[in-house]
Each structure stands twice: as C-alpha cells, then as structure tokens.
Amino acid sequence: MKKKVAMLMAMCLVTVGMLSACKKSENTADTNSADKGTEGASVSAGEEITLKFPCIWVGSDSKAEVFGKMVSDFNEENKGEIKVVIEDQTDYDAYRDKIRTQLSTGSAPDIFTVESYSDLELFVQSGKLMDMTDFLADSKMTDRFVEGILDKSKVDGINYGFAYENAYIPIMYNMELLEKAGVNEVPATYDEFFDLCKKLKEEDIFPVTQMTKDNAWTSMLWYSYALASCGGPDIYEKGLDDPAFVKAAEIIKEMFAYTSPDAVGADATVVNGHFFNERAAIYTNGTWILGRIQSEGAEGLYENIQIGPSLTSEGNNGGGYLNVVQAYVCASAQEDPAREAAIHKFFEFITEQDKIVELSNSSGSTFAIATEVDEIEDELQAEIITAGADAAYAIGHFQGSVPTSVANAFPAALESLVLGDTDAAGFVDMLKAAE
Amino acid sequence: MKVRKNDKIGIIIFLIPALALFTVFFIVPVISICYMSLFKWNGIAAAEFTGFSNYKNIFGDAVFLRSIRNNIIWAFAACLIQVPLALLMALILSTKPRGWKIFRTVYFLPQVISGIAIAMLWSAVFNSEYGILNGILKAVGLGHLSRNWLGDPSTAFICVLIYGLLYVGYYMVIMMAGITNIDESYYEAAKIDGANRFQMDIHITIPMIRYSIVTCVTLAAVFGLRTFEQVYLLTNGGPANRTSVVVLYLYNQMRDNNYGGANASSVMLVLTGACVIILIRKLLSKKEEK
Amino acid sequence: MAKEQAAKPVKYAKKPTQILGSIVKWILILFFAIYTLFPLLWLLITSLKTNAEYFDNPFSFPSVLQFSNYMNAFNQANLGQMIFNSITVALIATFANVMIAAMAAYAISRFKFKGREIIFALISAGIMIPLNALMVPYYTIFSKVGLLDSLNALRILYTAIGLPISIFIIRGFMDSFPVEIEEAAYIDGCGFFGRFFRIVFPLTKTGLVTAGTFQFITCWNEFVYANLLISAPETKTIQIGIRYFTNQFTTDYVSMYAAIIIAIVPSVVGYIMFQEKVMSGLTSGAVKG
To answer: What digits encode the pLDDT tens for the residues B230-288?
Structure first.
C-alpha cells in the first residue's frame, strides 16, 4: 500500500515536472530573446526587436482595455520588426519595488512608468534611464504636449521621461444635499465653506469625506487645497518652514470635525462608500472616478455634482485647481540604436492625439497630451478639463511635490493631529523630521 | 545516539542539502544585510558608510520603540493566550466528539484564506458606521460603548491583537498531530485506575506532547515578533503609528528609500528573535528535567 | 476538560457535572467554528454582490446573486493557468522542503555530533528573518543564475525559506520518539539510510505532514517574491491573480473575493483529502513501552 502511494506520488511529480519543464523551455526561449534585448546586444536587420514593458494599466484599471488595444495595434503595424510585450503589474507598491530592485541590481526594463517626480529623481540616479531630451525637443513631439509640461518633467535639465497621465482634481459638491442644507451655491471662501459644513451637519449629512489609511488620499488632497489657499501656487518651493503649512494644518484639522466618525483609519472604500451613497456631500478626486460614480453611485448623483476650485483664505488664492502628473513614461538606456529607435517609435504611437482622446474617453483619465475638449464625451470630465485649463493657477498635490519620505509620513502625522496628540505646528514638525 | 563510524557519512550527506540552501538563502543575505546596515543607501545611488548611525537613528525613533513594544506584547499574548486556547481545542477535539473531523478542518481554514479577505472583513466589522460590532452593541443596549475601534488609539491595538490571535487552527493542528501519536495503552491503563478525562489530560496527554507544545510556544513567540501582514492589512500601523510592528517599520523604511534603517531594523529583529528562541528552549527544557 | 462518556454496554446515568462539561465543551467548539467560518461565509455572500451593494453596506445580502462575478474572475485574470502554476510550485517546493528538512532534522535530532546545537540555533534563528528585507539579495542571486522569470526560481526559493520552520517542527516530532527502536534496528544490521527510510520516516509521518501542510500554505500565499522574480504572464501565480482586481484608486472587490474563493478551493480540497488519508491511519502507535 505504501509503495503504491509512493509510486503514484512519484508519477504525479514526474508528470508535473515534465509539464513545467515544457513550459520552462517555452519561457526560456522567450527569456533568451528578451535577455538579448535588455543586454543591448545588436540586432541584425530582419530580426524582431522585443521590448518588455511591465505595465500598471492592466487588469481592472480603467485604461487597461484601450491601452492594451493600442499596444496590440502597434505590434500589428510593426509586425516582424518591433514587438512590445506587456507584463502585467497589478499592485502599485510591488511594481515600484520591482523597478527599484531591478535598478539597484543594474538592469532596467525597456519601458516602464513612474508614479511621482521624486521617484523619477531617485531612479535617474541609477544612470540606467534613457536620455530623451533630443527626441522630445523635436517639434513633432513638443507640440503634442500641454505647454510647459515637458520642462517640468526634466531632472537636472534632462528629460529622462515624459509626463503621460496628467490629472485634474477638482472639488465635487453634491448639490442636492447642499440644497437640503439651504445652500444653492458652491462656496468660494473657507468661511463660507465651514458655514456650509455646519449647516450640512445639522441635517445629519457628513459634510466632507476624510480618510487616514494607506496614503490618506482624499485628506491629502484636501490638505493640498488648503496649502494652495494659504500659501499660493509656489508654496512647495518655499519649503516646509513656511507658515502656510501650519495654517493649512489648522484648516484640515477643522475639517475633521465635519466628517464621518469613521474617518480615522478609513480607506478609499469607506470614503467612496459615503459619497457614492449620498451620506457625504463634499468630495475630491480626479476625473477617473466619474465612471465609477455613474456605475456604482446612487441614482442621480452624477447629475447633481458641481465642481469647484480652491477656496480663498483671507481673500487670497482662490480659483486654483490641483493638477498632477500621475505617470511618467521612461525607458532604459539602450546601446543599440535600432532598439532606441524602436522605443521612440512606440512613444510616438502612444502620444498621438486621436489615441489619447480614445483613451481619455474610455477611462476618464486625462493626459499630458493636448486634446480638443469637444472630443471628450463625458460632460463633467470636459467641464473639469476646461475649468482646469482656464483656472487662476494650477498646483501639484502634496504627495507629488515633497520628498517621498515626507509624503509617507503624512498619514501618521495627520492622525496625530486629528487625535490631539499634537497641534498644527507639531504636525509640520513631524513632516519635517521625515525629511 | 552515539555517532558510529559509518553514521558519519550519512549525517554529512543528510545535512548538506539543508545547510547548502540555508547558507545561500539565509547566511549570505543576512551577512550582506548586516554589512549594509552600516551604510546610508537609497537603493539606487552609491552607498555611504555611516557606521552605527542607522542604529542610533532607529533607537531614537519613537515609532521603532513602539513597534518593539507592540511585538513583545504580541509575542507574550500569543504564547499565553493563543497557544493555551489551541491546546484546549486540541484536547477537546481529541475526545472525538461528533463531527470532530469537520471541525478540525474548519478551524484550520483561515490559514488557507487569503489574508486580504480576512482583513477586509474585520475592517468592516470594526467600522464605526456600519460595522457589526457597533451594531451588536447598539442592539443589546450598549450603544454608548460603540466607537471607531480601529481609529481610536486606546482600542486599536487590542482589536488588532484579538483579530490576529483568535485563529488557533495552526497550533491546534500541531498539537493534535502530537496527540494522535500517543499510545492508547496509556489511556486504557489510566481508565482502569479510575482516572477521569481531566486527570488523563493533565497527567498523560500534556506531558506526552511537550515537544509539540514547546514547538508551538516557540513558533507563537517568533510569529508574534515577526508579525506583519495582519497589521499591515488592518491598520497599516495606525492610528498615528500606535499599532506599528517592527517588520512594518522596516517595510516603511524601504518605502522611504532608507535601506540603511531597514537593514538595521532587520538585524535587530533577527537578534531579538534568536535570543527569544534560545531563551524559550532553555526555559522549557529545564522544566522537563527528569 | 470534558468528561467523556465511556462506550460501555451498560449505560451510566450522566452526572450533572458531566452535562455541564459537555455544554461548555460544545459552546467552545461552536464558538470557534462560527468565528472561523464567519469570514468564509461573508466572502461567499459578498462575492455574489455588486460593488455598489458592497459599498453601500458590506453586511447586506445581495439582491440578485451575481454568479457572473465568478465567470469574470476566472476569465479576466486567467485564473486557471495561475492555479496550475501555484500548484506545481507549491507541490514541488513542499516535497523538496519536507525531504530536505526531514533529513536534516534526523541528523540533528538523533546524533550528538559536535556543533549540533550551534547549527540548530542558527537554523532556528532563520525563522526570524523578515523576508521583505531580503529583496535585493534574493533578486541578485536569481538574476546571476539566470533563473529570473522561471517558476523554478520560486520553487528553489520556497524550498529554502521554509527550511527553518520545517526543520524546527520535524525535529520536535522526532525528539518525541525514543532512540531505542533505532538501536534495535542497528543491532539487526540496518544501515544509516535504512534506519531513516524504513523506520524513522514512517514513524514521524504526522510531523512531516504537519510541516508539509504549513509549507504548502506558505507557498500558496506568497506574493512578494512571486511578483518580484516573475514577469511573464504564463508564469504568474494565484496570489498575483487575486490582486488583478486591485488598483490604485478603485478595487473591484466582488470579483476579487470571487477569485479568492476560487483560489481557496484547491487548497481546501487538497487539505481534506490529504489529512484524511494520512492522519486517519495513524492511530496505532509503534513504540510499545
């Protein structure tokens, strides 16, 4: 009996081993050709160039479908010459770890995306990123992009990547709930704003949505808006010592008095849950959320939304919008000019205006490539883009404008502030300590 | 057993695969990490030698100290609550009540369910708005006790502990495996002497599975020190880093691109764990001095 | 702690304390059963809801059972291939790990050779090592050997990282068996390997199965290195498949829960079958006093 079981197990293992060996030889074949690629060996004419692209726009990401189609269209067009292979990356943190680990051990994927400017600065230090300055300086490319954004993508004066996804993040008001509180207009100053909050609270509506878990996303956005109002569009250049940081902290602390009781420790699910189900009245997030509001939100919510810009603090700095680069596209430095040309060709392809419009319409994301607003199908999205472009000023959000460690310290510092462990000045001290 | 001549070759052959793998995957990387903990490194640029300043920094960081405290509490709680509970359930299930096989499988299930799902569930349970905990409290008239469990510094850590420690299946299975090895004849002899179940448990079962118990206690202490996923998924160390644990601290150091701090924390963790393991072994083997 | 009813032909009347003990026993059993099953039940119910329903109230019941979530999960994330990959990786790594651990544990448990305690202490210290911190060293190792992007990297890695715990558990089991039995075998002329394979190995089956179970689960649940060391879609494992539905701002929770349930099924089935086969046949002790 024992022998039979052992034999059976051995046979199973052998079968499994053989199957996986077969798969392995398939993979090795792929890996070999891809390895040749990353090592930059020269490719003779007629041999297909394979570009590996670990990509975050896969799976349930709103851009996944159209972007995937774009890549396969590109591969069709360049059949036999260039093939871009997308490698699914579904987790942002894991993706960042992977790129970073690869870079520390001396290699880089052919094409990849970077989430924030500080990450871009970090990766540049590896010396493995492709210098794209000349490629992008060509008017064919420069003219495509929103003005000034390519310059903002530079590190030490060189383009190691270009801004691709460029988000507009307005404040959103559920006007139906506002009317219940007797207010018909979007507030313009912080005094009006808190007045509105008081009235909403009386009606048992959560005025604003706040969260502190993960990266405290919506609260971080609120803080960014407060910062913009207190410090003006160039506040980040002034550094953490500027009193505006403390003033903004006081504003956000007050906001927490007007939010749901589960705000501390809440994550995006909770916040979305409150706004989508009309338990909370004021929200802030980027245009990508509009599709979900329509599909998962309460009936009529989408139609009741009105957007608003930053509020004035002491009469200053109203009318601005948060405008942030969500993704930079980068590539690894290539020794082989043929591979470099192939990568350039791919970049040209994915920045074509009509493709961007299609991507924008299907996903609700907005991009660094300039497009005609009338081609945007979603009403609210078009409204946001127009408002953002016409705004008094545009400013980045806190997370993307400060060093990584400071951004990472934000949620815990916010919790300390809100729980009363520390005051506004102490909050800023905690951020400074992380630097 | 005495080592005889022809045994020597056998011992060496048997030890080689394990030692080889262990050296490659543990010894070498750990030495590398110890070495790197003396440097300031952001993971990409060149590393800068800074001696012991990384250690000075982490010990000066209140969050790190709090993390160590939380881990120690967790380790103790695991040994003093989780393991005894598991032992209790193992003893109960060994009396083979009706359907015991089903229960044994059921208790083990949480290990197989992805941690993400369990964390999402408990996040929802503890939620102050629509959570079941508050719902139950309100329903039985204790509504004044309801609060934001995971967002309130005074209750957050306890909630995380409870969530982590009531899953006893892991240790229960180890101990049940030990119990099945006990010869029936011991129990038969005891029954003839008129012993009841309780006495049999105390005088036969527990002593005979002492190796399993020691294993469980050691593993519980070690897992308590090594906790990561539960805290990461449930509170991410919050509120205000109150529930932080060392591995989470280390993880955040890496996110901050501070590999020096991460490596220093790793070294401290391994040292602490090694001491704890040796301590437990010494303590518990003394007790068995016959 | 409960008093057991002896199976005798003459029925004794139950004493009140026995009934109380029985009640307490069953309260405990049921409490833990509910506590444990609760997540599974919740998962099942939630995986049949829509995301909108989930956001509205995580504890509500679905108005319409969304079986499509399962179809979605399976197709979108290509779960079939991933489950197969996870199974091959976990099985091979578990088998190798348990074999190697058993061999090492035998040497350590049975023979008093110089350096035995040091080696065991080192190996035990290995349990403590936080794997998260070792990304750079491990990536470098596999990159140098050219095994990146191959499932064999995971197989080797999982075999290795499970060794400390497996050796620890198996040694604990081996220690509980007196050496006399092997002494007897030695006198009978049984060699080193014979003693191991024919006597100790079968005896410690429960320990091996226990260690193997944990190892299997560790392999099954491992995510960090499965993501770091592997890229090609055909080599993805199930944990990556589950995170297919997560996103920076949005997560398709109901599909993710459906995927998790799909991922649980093979492990649970395997566990049940394996436990039945191996554990049930082990009531007869081998060492008589």
So the answer is: 898 888 887 889 999 999 999 999 889 999 999 999 999 988 888 888 888 888 776 55
Domain ranges of chain C: 16-68, 77-245
Mutate to test the interface with C, among A3, A26, A63, A101 (most CBs of C within 10 A): A101
Contact A126 B152 (CB under 8 A): no
Inter-chain touch A16–C92, beta carbons under 8 Å? yes
A343-346 — which CB contacts under 8 Å span 24+ positions? A343/A51, A343/A110, A343/A111, A343/A130, A344/A135, A345/A78, A345/A82, A346/A51, A346/A74, A346/A82, A346/A84, A346/A111
Question: Has domain A169-323+387-433 been given CATH number 1.10.10.200?
Answer: no
Distance from CA of A90 to the nearest CA of B (A): 15
Closest by Cα among A222, A128, A250 to B44: A128
Closest chain A residue to C223 measured between Cα atoms? A94
- Please write down the HEC assignment for all residues of A126-190: CCCECCCHHHHHCHHHHCCECCCHHHHCCECCECCEEEEEEEEECEEEEHHHHHHCCCCCCCCEH
Inter-chain touch C151–A104, beta carbons under 8 Å: no
Q: Could you tell me the CATH superfamily of domain C77-245?
A: MetI-like (1.10.3720.10)
Nearest-CB residue to C247 (from A60, A276, A277): A60
Compute the nearest-CA separation of A408 from chain B (Å): 7
B267 neighbors B50 (Cβ within 8 angstroms): no
**Predicted ipTM of the assembly:** 0.84
Architecture of the domain delimited by A46-167+325-375? 3-Layer(aba) Sandwich (3.40)
Judge: C196–B14 Cβ closer than 8 Å, yes or no. yes
A372 burial type by CB count under 10 A (0-12 exposed, 13-18 middle, 19+ buried): exposed
pTM (2 d.p.): 0.86
Which chain B residues contact residue C104 at CB under 8 A? 14-15, 17-19
> Domain segments of chain B: what residues?
60-287
Whether the ω angle into residue B153 lies within 30 degrees of 0, i.e. cis, is: no
Contact B89 C28 (CB under 8 A): yes
State whether CATH 1.10.3720.10 applies to domain B60-287: yes
> Subunits that touch chain C (at least 3 Cβ pairs < 8 angstroms)?
A, B
Q: How many CB pairs under 8 A join A and C?
A: 117
Same CATH topology for A46-167+325-375 and A169-323+387-433? yes
Convert the pLDDT of each residue in C178-211 to its tens digit.
Answer: 777 777 777 777 777 777 777 777 778 878 888 8
| Residues of chain B with C-beta less than 8 angstroms from the C-beta of A93 | 255
Domain extents in chain A: 46-167+325-375, 169-323+387-433
Q: Which chains touch B (3 or more CB pairs under 8 A)?
A: A, C
